[in-house]
Structure formats: structure tokens, C-alpha cells
Design goal:
alpha/beta; 7-stranded parallel β-sheet; 15% strand; globular; binds adenosine monophosphate
């Protein structure tokens, strides 16, 4: 595809100005492909991970069409609805709409659970064009009559695969039944399992399909390593790795909320600034932790999969999988948090011997064999199969993580400490 500019996609000057203010020089591939279809009024099936610029791909044409619409919204009857699986993602989409739509004079609000509904009800009573919502709270407000969907012209279901993974299918279907038949619909998903494909079949009318990376293909620019380590040594390995300042902004994934808290406490005790983010925390606590991480006040954010979904923080240097996810697709989502918008990044996975089946499932899905880091103080030998291919480093390494390897530099000292412990 020819390189192109935003102006050649048919976007209006007010939006082009907002994009310049955000510092975007050119559209990303998903934007290049999707925007012309959407401006032409087509339904769209978008297969793209976060980090590809998919939010702007749907937000820009929707904003442009709403700005040009003859009819203004009435109180409680928005014209565009975006459904997102998590509160964090909904807030980010809302923020993006606000930035991209600066100067268009459209009203918008975000509807999510975990916070008081009163300000949301007040916002809906004004003339709101765009509502970004998580399904549960939106249904509550629909049932209480605070919002009607009968005049929706644009419906966007974002991260549909995660929406289904999180068990929102019934809520989503209930919401869809309240939408008018004639509408413009978009569905975005990082992967396309059969349940998402069948939902797309129900929602979309003769959609165009755009796909920026094959489903479940790992982000190319992420260098990926595996550390074989016993479970009980994982906290010490994490502390060891964090001795290296190259791990400047680190997102650590833990499998449970409890474990996320414990890992954050342990690294805080070791003198590293860290926060945990998970579903048991209040929305304000989650936003606070995210903000500290975004501003660089905490170096490490420990998250569960669900809490981290859609998390959009630039410059994450490393994603660390403290535990491997049960679903290999989650690995793809996790490592997509680094290497965003063209940057490169690094993903380090801690694999205990009982997690080897999960590792193999990830390698099968992504068709990438993770490079094993042997030169680390807690290494345990993995079972067969033996690795046959040359390591990924031979193919993709620049001056990356390997250049440093903490284990290589200080392995003797660490090994003694580990043995003494
Ligand atoms: P998304 O996939 O929508 O979560 O976007 C990922 C990141 O890319 C966000 O930080 C966006 O602000 C950024 N982004 C989106 N479009 C562009 C663009 N055309 N040029 C540079 N950055 C972009």
C-alpha cells in the first residue's frame, strides 16, 4: 500500500488540526484502510490489536459523520455508542474522542461501573452525541430509563474477543436488541475465534473486513524471552532483573489479584516504586495507579489481565509475565502493551516447569519460539523438546535487553546470594 496522509483520506480540517496537535504524522495501516470505508458509510470488521491505532481508525470517521449530521441529539438519546470491555479502555477511548473531536462541538460522556452513577445520569440528561460505555453500567442506566438507544446511528463494539472472554455476551446482546435496525456498525477484535465471528455476523451488515496483523500473531517488534525458573524463585528473579535501569517502565502480569498485590508489595519492599492494578481496587485507586505509572512516578505496575486490558501507556520498556496466562491469546494481548505505535519493546516470561504446557501453547499460537535465557541465577532446565531453531536474538537483536544481561554481569554474586537464601 502507498504511504498516505490523513488529508488524502478525506478528513476535514478541524480533525486534521487535532491530529497535528497529537503529533501524528501519518495514518497507521489500520487507519489507512478503515477510514475510507467508514467515511463511505460501510459496516466494518476490524481485526487489530491495541497499539495499532485502531481507536483513531473508528473515532475519526465517526466524529466527522456526527459533526456533519443534520440532526442534533436530544437529552438521553445519543447518536453514537462505543462498547468497551473494561473501564480503563472506555476511559481511554473517551479521552481519544475528546482529543480528536476538539473543535467539533460534539457532546460526549463515558459510562462505567465502580463509580457513582449520579454524574453519569446528569451528563446523559444533556444533549450527548457520543457515549462510550462498559456493558454492565450501561444496561443499568438503560433499565432505569436514563438513556435510550433508539437514535443510535453509529455502534462500535471494541475488543469483542475480550468482551466475550469476560462473559459479557448476554449483556452485549441485550444492548444490541435495543439498537435501531438501521445503523452503521463496527466490530473490532484482536483475534477472531468462532464466537466472535458469529457475533459479527449478527451485528454487521455486509461488512468490509480490514486486518492489520493476522489473528493472534505476536507483535513483530517485541523481543521475547523465556526464563525457566521455579515458582518460589520468581520474586527474586524479578528483583534481580529490576536491578537493571534499562527496565525503565515495566508492566508485570500476575494471574490473580492476590498475587498482583503480593508481587507489588515485594518489589516495593526491595526499594522499587510499584503499584498494583486489578478489579478489587476502586476505580479511583486504579486511575491513580495508572496515572503514577504513566507519569513515571512508579516504575513498575503489576496488573491482572483484565485490569490491564486496553491499557495505553507509552514507553513501556518491558512486559514481564510473572506467570504465564492460561489462554495463549492473553499472551498476545499482554505483550502488545509494549512496542506500541512503532516503538520496540521486550517481553520476558517466567515459566515454572508446571507452566511448560502454557508456554508451548503460546509458541504454537504465535508461531514464535521464545528465546531461553540460560544465563540467569535461577535457571532450571526445561523438559524436551529441545530447541532446534536459532534463537530469536540471532535474527532480531539490536542493542537490546541482551546487551545488558544482568544475570551475565552479576550471575556469580547473585547465585551465591540465591544459594544462601
Ligand atoms: P490504539 O491501538 O488505538 O490503542 O493506539 C495505540 C497508540 O498509538 C495510542 O497511544 C495512540 O495515541 C497512538 N496512535 C494512534 N494513531 C497514531 C498515528 N497515526 N501516529 C502516531 N501514533 C498514533
Amino acid at each position: 500500500m502507498q504511504p498516505t496522509s490523513f488529508s488524502s483520506l478525506g478528513l476535514i480540517e478541524t480533525i486534521l488540526r487535532a491530529l497535528r496537535a497529537r503529533g501524528y504524522a501519518a495514518p497507521t495501516p489500520i487507519q489507512q484502510q478503515a477510514i475510507p470505508y467508514l467515511l463511505a458509510g460501510k459496516d466494518l470488521l476490524g481485526i487489530a490489536q491495541t497499539g495499532t491505532g485502531k481507536t483513531a481508525a473508528f473515532a475519526l470517521p465517526v466524529l466527522q459523520q456526527l459533526a456533519g449530521a443534520a440532526e442534533r441529539p436530544r437529552p438521553r438519546t445519543p447518536h453514537a455508542l462505543v462498547l468497551a470491555p473494561t473501564r480503563e479502555l472506555a476511559i481511554q477511548i473517551h479521552d481519544d474522542f475528546r482529543d480528536y473531536g476538539a473543535g467539533l462541538g460534539l457532546g460526549q460522556t463515558v459510562i462505567l461501573g465502580g463509580v457513582s452513577q449520579r454524574p453519569q445520569v446528569a451528563a446523559l440528561s444533556r444533549c450527548i452525541d457520543i457515549v462510550v460505555a462498559t456493558p454492565g453500567r450501561l444496561l443499568d442506566l438503560l433499565e432505569q430509563g436514563h438513556v435510550r438507544l433508539s437514535r443510535i446511528t453509529h455502534f462500535i463494539l471494541d475488543e469483542a474477543d475480550r468482551m466475550l472472554d469476560m462473559g459479557f455476551i448476554h449483556d452485549v446482546k441485550k444492548i444490541i436488541r435495543k439498537l435501531p435496525e438501521r445503523r452503521h456498525s463496527l466490530l473490532f477484535s484482536a483475534t477472531m475465534p468462532s464466537d466472535v465471528a458469529s457475533l459479527a455476523g449478527e451485528i454487521l451488515h455486509r461488512p468490509e473486513r480490514v486486518e492489520v496483523t493476522p489473528a493472534a500473531t505476536t507483535v513483530d517488534k517485541v523481543r521475547q524471552y523465556v526464563y525457566f525458573v521455579n515458582s518460589e524463585d520468581k520474586p527474586a528473579l524479578l528483583r534481580e532483573l529490576l536491578d537493571d535501569p534499562a527496565l525503565s517502565r515495566v508492566l508485570v502480569f500476575a494471574r490473580t489479584k492476590h498475587r498482583a498485590n503480593r508481587v507489588a508489595q515485594k518489589i516495593t519492599a526491595a526499594g522499587v516504586t510499584a503499584d498494583a492494578i486489578h478489579g478489587n481496587k476502586s476505580q479511583n485507586a486504579r486511575q491513580g495507579a495508572l496515572e503514577r505509572f504513566r507519569r513515571g512516578r512508579s516504575r513498575v505496575l503489576v496488573a491482572t489481565d483484565i485490569a490491564a486490558r486496553g491499557l495505553d501507556v507509552d514507553g513501556i520498556s518491558h512486559v514481564i509475565n510473572f506467570e504465564l496466562p492460561h489462554e495463549p491469546e492473553s499472551y498476545v494481548h499482554r505483550i502488545g502493551r509494549t512496542a506500541r505505535a512503532g516503538a520496540s519493546g521486550c517481553a520476558l516470561s517466567f515459566c515454572a516447569l508446571d507452566e511448560v504446557p502454557q508456554l508451548r501453547a503460546i509458541e504454537k499460537l504465535t508461531r514464535v519460539e521464545l528465546e531461553m535465557v540460560r544465563d540467569q541465577p535461577f535457571h532450571v532446565s526445561p523438559p524436551a523438546p529441545q530447541r532446534k531453531r536459532p534463537p530469536q536474538s540471532a535474527r532480531t537483536h539490536g542493542a537490546g535487553y541482551r546487551g545488558r544481561n544482568a544475570a551475565a554481569r552479576s550471575g556469580g554474586r547473585r547465585r551465591r546470594r540465591a544459594t544462601a537464601a
